[in-house]
Amino acid sequence: VNQLPVEIISHIFALSRPYLPSLLIFSVEEFNKQKNIRGVLNPGQVCRNWRTIAHRTPELW
């Protein structure tokens, strides 16, 4: 994984993010469920390099 180009890792991160529809249609309970799922799949929590890549990937924000 460390030998992959940053662009590829960034694209993988973007493809693996959970789908979150518009927050306007969420109830508070549904938002909290989705937020918890998103935290589990956060690649920025793996290592410093992945955190940097995640922060520089606009599709994740």
TrEMBL record:
CDD domains, alphabetized: F-box_SF
InterPro entries documented for this protein: F-box_dom
F-box domain segment(s): 2-61
Entry superkingdom: Eukaryota
Name of the featured protein: F-box domain-containing protein
Organism annotation: Crepidotus variabilis
